[in-house]
Amino acid sequence: MAEEVQDTRPSPPCWLDKNVIQTALREGDGDPTITVLSCDITMANAVGDGYTSDMYRVVAKLQDSNERRVIVKCQPLGGQREEMIKNLNAFETERKMLMEILPSMCKLLEGAKPGEYEPFSAKCLYFGEDPVQFLVLEDLRHSGFTLVEMAKGLDLTHCKLVVRTLARFHASSLALLEANPSILQNHRKTIYTEEFRKDVTPFYNNSMKSLEKTVLQWPGYEKYAEKIKNIRKNIYDRIMDTARAKYGELNTLVHGDCHSNNMMFRYSDTCVTDIRLVDFQTCYYSSPTLDLQYFLRVCPNEEVRRSGIDGLIKEYHSTFSDTLDILNCSAHKITLEKLKKEFDEHFIFGFAVVTSFLPLIFVDPSQRQDLDGITNPNDDLTNTVENIMVDGPFERIIKQFLVESENLGLL
Question: Which H or E element spans position 59?
Fold first, then answer.
């Protein structure tokens, strides 16, 4: 289980008070009589845990002697984060996902098989825009959900739960799109466009340059330095092309940021029983294999990476096909072979996340950077990343990944 998050960011903003929470609870519950007497507000994420937002945990004491626990997710102010999040329209994207699209997807699933499916996300109670955009969400931790420690990786049981959830997410988005073709209109834009090149490219370039240097220190792996360099030269152009929805391929709504910190799990004793996805700010319409590339390259533990990836793709395909059948959308089904082919064709996306994002997972929490630090890498972060690459789990993972990729002809 993840350790308690430390309050490493500034105090909560002065505008976040009991009146804001009272308004959110009244609107979210549809009950104008709710009265909030006081609020205890603390930071809910540490530096490096929430790149695109500031999050606060609120315990509200009500007039009826009850308590309500919520999370307030706020648009960041200052630095490159603020400009990038505004340009991406991230909070409006998440508002629409949480308050319109996800409830509609869940309604379709519930209508097809009542009582069979859990929600994809936390309930969103309220969306505000003054003085900044913010969301008020149910506190999943209070409902027994918790984060896992990203650096340990997810075992096979967790991974199966995730891919089944992603499969239902993707399939139900197709059913929703069929019923309401215009509902995903605002999700045609991804972060991987020319507009965000200057924000995103330094992140990939810096990590890949570090990896180029690092593989030269590994006997027998020196040949990969030139291959990594060649990929790095046009990495962002290739990612933009990969992330674009293509005619003739399977396209669905994708989560867009499928790492372990955007998943919360609930347990019975020591067995994982349920999951909620979080952070829907970068959802877009494209190939569902992009979510699979992201998740399967970054999140599994070493044992699953060695022997479980193919089985997880089969698990995903089985659930995806079954869900389409349940939703009377069988026309969108594809064969397992076609799914694997598209997964391999989107290899470059997985290469980018495994070489750039994976090292950050192993960074000590005290050395993590916020979004400004990652998109404008400094010498300290570069040195930290290079030290992580030299030894330990990242070295074992990337060596295995490079060999497998070369054997498949993907490099």
Answer: strand 54-62
Distance separating alpha carbons of residues 33 and 119, to the nearest angstrom: 27
- Which stretch, 138-152, 311-325, 345-359, has highest mean pLDDT? 311-325
- Cα separation, 169 vs 288, in Å, equals 10
Q: Which residues contact 225 (CB under 8 A, 6 or more apart)?
A: 212, 213, 215, 216
Taking the C-alpha atoms of residue 255 and residue 217, their distance in angstroms, rounded to an integer, is: 36
| Residue 392: HSE in the Cβ half-sphere, 13 Å Cα cutoff | 14
Q: Are 204 and 235 in contact (CB under 8 A)?
A: yes
Nearest to 285 by CA among 135, 183, 199, 195: 183
SS3 at position 219: coil
- Of 283, 81, 291, nearest in space to 199 by CA: 81
Q: What is the mean pLDDT of residues 48-58?
A: 77
Structural contact between residues 326 and 113, judged by C-beta atoms closer than 8 angstroms = yes
Structure tokens at 350: 């997985």
The single-letter DSSP state of residue 97 is I
On whether the 144-407 domain is CATH 3.90.1200, my answer is yes
| Rounded-to-integer distance, Cα 31 and Cα 124, Å | 15
The dihedral of CA 82, 83, 86, 89: what is its sign?
Answer: negative
pTM assigned to the model? 0.91
Residues contacting 142, CB < 8 A, separation 6+:
69
Q: Which residue has the higher pLDDT, 387 or 330?
A: 330
Residues facing residue 67 across a β-bridge: 61
Q: In the chain, how long is the greatest CA-to-CA distance?
A: 70
Return d(Cα 320, Cα 313) in angstroms, integer.
10
At residue 70, what are phi and psi to the nearest 5 degrees?
A: -135, 165
How far apart, in Å, do the first and last CA atoms of the chain sit? 36
Give the number of other CB atoms < 10 A from CB of residue 189: 15
- Helix pair 197-215, 235-243: axis angle to 10 deg: 120
| Interatomic CA distance for residues 336 and 215, integer angstroms | 34
Per-residue pLDDT at 87: 79
Residue spans of the domains in the chain: they are 144-407
CB hemisphere CA count around 184 (13 angstroms): 29
- The predicted model gives 331-339 an average pLDDT of 95
